[in-house]
Write a structure and sequence with these properties.
The chain has one domain. With about 80 residues, it is an all-alpha fold. Helix content is about 85%, strand content about 0%. α1 runs antiparallel to α2, α1 runs parallel beside α3 and α2 runs antiparallel to α3. The termini are far apart.
């Protein structure tokens, strides 16, 4: 009984992961676009650009939760949302 439930749970994880990554990648793009339009110091721009690249890599690797944490910090720095 437990085995089919585990298999179903794993299948669900594989189905949900790509959808979560898509949302994550959309957020990376939104932050990148906002960054291009904002008047920031060179240091701020460099820091947020590095963070955005890190979030993008995490998204592509399927680590959407970690990417979300980085994106939340970026959005706070840019005063988005």
């Amino acid at each position: 009984m437990l085995r089919p439930m585990v298999i179903a749970g794993l299948a669900l994880c594989f189905l949900v992961s790509p959808a979560a990554a898509e949302g994550c990648e959309e957020d990376v793009l939104k932050v990148k676009q906002a960054l291009e339009k904002m008047d920031l110091s060179e240091d701020e721009r460099a820091q947020i650009t590095d963070m955005n690249e890190q979030a993008d890599e995490l998204c592509k690797a399927g680590n959407s939760e970690e990417a979300g944490d980085v994106l939340a910090e970026e959005k706070a720095m840019l005063k988005l949302d």
